[in-house]
Specification:
Transmembrane segments: 21-44, 56-89, 127-151, 157-176, 251-269, 281-302
Largest sheet: 6 strands, mixed
CATH architecture of the largest domain: Up-down Bundle
CATH superfamily of the largest domain: ABC transporter type 1, transmembrane domain
CATH class of the largest domain: Mainly Alpha
Distance between the termini: 76 Å
Strand content: 5-15%
Domain ABC transmembrane type-1: 21-304
Helix content: 55-70%
Number of strands: 10
Number of helices: 22
GO molecular function, one term: ATP hydrolysis activity
Strand order of the largest sheet: 6-7-8-3-9-10
Shape: elongated
Oligomer: single chain
Membrane topology: Multi-pass membrane protein
Radius of gyration: 35 Å
Number of domains: 2
Domain ABC transporter: 337-572
Structural class: alpha/beta
């Protein structure tokens, strides 16, 4: 049960001063809280024996008020310090999780659903933070405070009465242990169900247009209802065990009260304790209710925290498939890019997505890559970004193997515009500044001109300050592509990769963007993958991929002379363009 504290020892060691102060303050506050009942018993005895004077009464009242003030001040200090530490822990782990997510490769995200990762970043972190706050409180109160109470009851009143009143404690320990094991198992299942539900909601929101287009609203609502019912059932299972804690504790505490009151009255009649002692003892029994409850709460909190920490650690312990080299080599600039007999298959697949790719690219060249859907164009670009391990063959930048260069340097060189553009839920200005944080409006307007987006920006309600909405929902497909292009252009990368990133714009707009690209990217390397041959006709070298292999290569004129797949596609597309013009 206490293994969760061992798993968090790295945090407690770092903040040992904070937690030492909080625990000592909590113990002092608890000790001060033991004095008032003694004052009440003392006063009652003086009243019983008619020895209470006004001076003594005033002294007792003033002392009682002073204790209240001191207790309040110390309680504030331990509360602020202890629960402040819990907030720090939550922030720390959340930051570490975010750093971990940013380092992960596509393989990680293929194996972990977004909804589950969100659940681990929210609900599970709350449960862990509660362990470092409320868990420490219940641990101290269920041990130190309880023993202090028992010691005061035994030494200052009667050990016989104290031991008799504590007979229910062993029963409580056995029952709480069983409840704790059940809580751990059921809470783990409930959190997993919550993660699955999160994922379903995310997919439904992202795909709402598709759901409506296929009139699947009722079916999606039905699926969501089934998911929520599953989450509900699993959380009810947790709640059923949780609900057993309080009544069990009340029965055991009530039993202690019955023993204390009955046996205590007998001891008063036998003159072994005074009436004031009996009143004080029963006040202490009342104070003992919380430490006894704290035992149950401690088990509950620790089991939830342990289950959540296991889930978070499972994520944190995932080692990235692609690691930085121990001694990275520095490359000043990308003068050449070499693909030497490159072959690759995705993890957990046996079929090669790329086979025997050999190509040399010199600085300043534009490389066109075409082929059928699934031919391997995007895979080639992902390997250039070093997103996957397990490459057979070599990729070299300026003669250095890609594995010997740091990931940061590789990705700083490259401006990548993928097929599916990601728009952040911010303004257009902020989305473009993602490529260059300190970019001025003048620079932004320049790259928007290159991306042929100036006319569009004038039509938007707030210009550059227009909010694009969730994943760019307020922009059309073509607008999103051009904002993504502007974001890559403003970075001025040494290597620009356009992965079918103009598929949603019309032919005239594409031609203007290509012309701007040719002027802007002189002496810089550019890769363009496209399904429209017109996007690559100007390229210095064009390769045609089929089933991951290069089946044709050369300039546009050379490929037209070969008379293969490239020529066939180009002529078909040209005929289609002519028909559009005629119509």
């Amino acid at each position: 049960m206490f293994e969760v504290f061992k798993k968090l020892d790295w945090f407690f060691k770092h903040y040992w001063k904070r937690y030492t102060f909080a625990i000592i303050s909590l113990i002092i506050a608890s000790a001060i809280g033991l004095i008032p009942p003694k004052l009440v018993g003392y006063a009652i005895d003086h009243i019983q024996f008619e020895t209470l004077t006004m001076q003594l009464l005033v002294t007792l009242i003033v002392g009682y008020l002073c204790l209240i003030v001191v207790h309040y001040a110390i309680s504030f200090l331990w509360d602020y310090t202890l629960f402040g530490g819990a907030v720090i822990l939550e922030r720390w782990i959340r930051s570490r999780l975010m750093d971990h997510f940013l380092k992960m490769t596509p393989t990680f995200y293929g194996r972990n659903k977004t909804g589950d990762l969100m659940a681990r970043s929210t609900n599970d972190l709350k449960a862990i933070a509660q362990t470092a706050g409320f868990g420490i409180l219940t641990l101290v109160d269920s041990t130190t405070f309880m023993f202090m109470l028992i010691a005061v009851m035994g030494f200052t009143i009667s050990w016989k009465l104290t031991l008799a009143a504590l007979i229910p404690l062993p029963i409580m320990a056995i029952v709480m242990n069983k409840y704790g094991a059940a809580i751990h198992a059921r809470f783990t299942k409930a959190q997993a169900a919550f993660g699955n539900m999160n994922n379903e909601v995310l997919e439904s929101i992202r795909g709402v247009r598709v759901i409506r287009a296929f009139v699947q609203e009722k079916q999606d609502a039905k699926r969501f209802k089934e998911m929520t019912e599953d989450v509900y059932d699993k959380n009810i299972a947790v709640a059923k065990i949780d609900a057993l804690f309080e009544p069990t504790m009340k029965i055991l505490v009530g039993l202690s009260y019955t023993i204390g009151l009955g046996y205590g009255a007998l001891l008063v009649f036998e003159n072994q304790i005074t009436l004031g002692d009996l009143v004080t003892f029963n006040v202490y029994l009342g104070m003992l209710i919380w430490p006894m409850f704290a035992v149950g709460e401690l088990i509950n909190v620790l089991q939830r925290g342990n289950a959540s920490l296991d889930r978070v650690n499972e994520t944190m312990n995932y080692v990235a498939d692609v690691q930085n080299p121990e001694n990275p080599k520095t490359v000043a600039s990308v003068d050449t890019i070499d693909f030497d007999d490159l072959s690759f298959s995705y993890p957990e697949t046996e079929t090669n997505q790329l086979s025997n790719i050999s190509l040399q690219v010199k600085k300043g060249q534009t490389i066109g890559i075409v082929g059928k859907t699934g031919a391997g164009k995007t895979t080639l670009f992902k390997l250039m970004l070093r997103q996957y391990p397990g490459i057979n063959g070599k990729i070299k930048y300026s003669g250095q193997k890609i594995e010997d260069i740091s990931l940061e340097q590789i990705r700083n060189w490259i401006g990548y515009v993928p097929q599916d553009q990601m728009m952040f839920s911010k303004t257009i200005r902020e989305n473009i500044q993602f490529g260059k944080e300190d970019a001025t409006d003048q620079e932004i307007y320049r790259v928007m001109e290159l991306a042929h987006f100036l006319d569009d920006i004038k039509q938007l309600p707030n210009g550059l300050d227009t909010q694009v909405g969730e994943s760019g929902v307020t922009l059309s497909g073509g607008q999103k592509q051009r904002v993504a292009l502007a974001r890559a252009f403003i970075k001025k990368p040494e290597v620009l990769i356009l992965d079918d990133s103009m598929s949603a714009v019309d032919g005239k707009t594409e031609a203007k963007i290509i012309e701007h690209l040719r002027q802007e990217r002189k002496n810089k390397t550019t890769f363009i993958a496209a399904h429209r041959m017109s996007a690559v006709t100007h390229a210095d070298h064009i390769i045609v991929l089929e089933n991951g292999k290069i089946v044709e290569e050369g300039t546009h004129d050379q490929l037209m002379k070969i008379g293969g797949w490239y020529k066939e596609q180009y002529e078909q597309q040209q005929m289609g363009n002519d028909e559009e013009v005629i119509s």
